[in-house]
Specification:
Length: 137
């Protein structure tokens, strides 16, 4: 069985059908029809407002141009001289600590310090218990 791999190639489905149908049985032709139906894009299900939009990260000022259906009121001029809708974000991959590698521990109300103190008490209690057992022997 041959596997057909199409990567970013636009081929008319009728042309592809004629090539594939030359040496196939009826059962395989049905499979090819299903395969071609999956390849073709469905009509009238995609939004009409899909357009270029600038996404701007307000924490570090980085911006990038992508396509989106988001509704915005603001516009901004991009590097190419055209004006595009603007969507401001509080955080993006350019400022998120996971992606930048600058993760920080947020110590709210000294939780980390309290944990360190409890850990130190537990270790001290364990050492006392082990010393007590050694003295009994």
């Amino acid at each position: 069985m041959a596997i057909i791999q199409l990567v970013r190639v636009v081929i008319p489905t009728d042309f592809l059908k004629n090539i594939i149908f030359l040496n196939l049985s009826l059962v395989n032709r049905r499979l090819v029809d299903r395969f071609l139906a999956l390849l073709s894009m469905k009509k009238d299900i995609h939004p009409d407002s899909y357009r270029p939009v600038i996404f701007k990260d307000i924490t570090n000022g980085d911006a990038f141009l992508s396509r989106s259906c988001v509704k915005t009121k603001e516009t901004i001029q991009w590097e190419d001289g055209n004006e595009y809708p603007l969507l401001t974000m509080e955080i993006s991959s350019t400022s998120h600590p996971f992606y930048t590698g600058s993760q920080r521990f947020v110590d709210t109300a000294g939780r980390v310090d309290k944990f360190q103190q409890r850990l130190a008490k537990t270790k001290a209690a364990q050492e006392e218990a082990s010393n007590f057992k050694k003295r009994k022997k």
